[in-house]
Amino acid sequence: MATHTDTRRPSRARRWLLRGLFAGGIAGNEQLTALTGVVLILLLAALGITIVRIGGLLNAHMFIGMLLIGPVLLKMASTGYRFVRYYTANPRYRAKGPPAVELRMLAPLVVFTTVVVFASGVALLFVGPSARGTLTPIHKVSFVAWLAVTALHVLGHLAEMPRALAADRHRPREWDDHGSGRGARALALSGALVGGLVLALLVESQFGAWAHFHHH
After folding, report:
1. Distance between CA 189 and CA 77 in Å, rounded?
2. How large is the C-alpha radius of gyration of the chain?
3. Residue 58 and residue 180: Cα distance in Å, rounded?
4. Are 205 and 62 spatial neighbours (Cβ–Cβ below 8 Å)?
5. Most buried among 27, 100, 112, 208, using CB within 10 Å?
6. How many whole angstroms separate alpha carbon 73 and alpha carbon 189?
7. Ranges of H-type helices in the chain
8. Mind listing the pLDDT tens digit of every residue in the chain (216 residues)?
């Protein structure tokens, strides 16, 4: 009997986390997307500094790039969830309405360039300097395109960001949720950051080849 109870605990924990994560509804989804967006803006600002001084900050550039993967995946998941709920005719998301048509047209470009810039960056990291002739131009061009469409994306949502960050302000402030899902969203964002950090630390040994190549 004890064994049967123990095996059920992880399943119950997962169900509790999922219920908490989606408990906030539209307001919770908006807040998670906005919070993740703020984190991404800060990390991208740090990444921009490494690009300006790439010679001395190459390792930092690669480390922040890997760290970004966690929050980027969370941002794509939160916006993708809204997309699916709207186009599967969920009444609440339908009532909320879609984003502006310009932002909807921009979204596929944001997703595509995001995938290309991070995939090419990870490929460069693992293949090493021997792939710089083919992968480096792809990474650079996709980064410029990604930066442009992401900037437009951020500007398009900038006015609504303060409201989205405070989307559940009418809910209780305690962190035991009371159905708001606030704690689960904080856990999701923290998990994305920790996941990105762990990933960056795990692949840090791959930085050496690029540092050696750049030095010579």
Report:
1. 12
2. 20
3. 42
4. no
5. 27
6. 10
7. 2-22, 25-52, 58-87, 91-96, 101-127, 132-158, 161-165, 182-202, 207-215
8. 444 444 455 566 566 555 655 566 788 888 888 899 999 999 999 998 988 887 778 888 889 999 999 999 999 999 988 888 888 888 888 888 877 888 888 989 999 999 999 999 898 888 877 777 888 899 999 999 998 998 898 888 888 888 877 766 555 444 344 455 777 788 889 999 999 999 999 988 877 766 665 555
Residue 193 and residue 70 in contact, taking contact as beta carbons nearer than 8 Å: yes
Instruction: Provide the token pair at 38.
Output: 């703020």
How far is 191 from 97, CA to CA, in rounded Å?
30
Residue 93 phi/psi, 5-degree rounding, is -70, -30
- With beta carbons less than 8 A apart as the criterion, state whether 20 and 181 touch: yes
User: Would you state the structure tokens that stand for residue 114, as one six-digit string?
Assistant: 């995001």
Task: Provide the residue ranges of all domains of the chain, joining segments of one domain with +.
Answer: 23-215
pTM of the shown model: 0.79
Say if CB 40 and CB 75 are below 8 A apart.
yes
Helices 132-158 and 25-52: angle between axes, nearest 10 degrees: 130
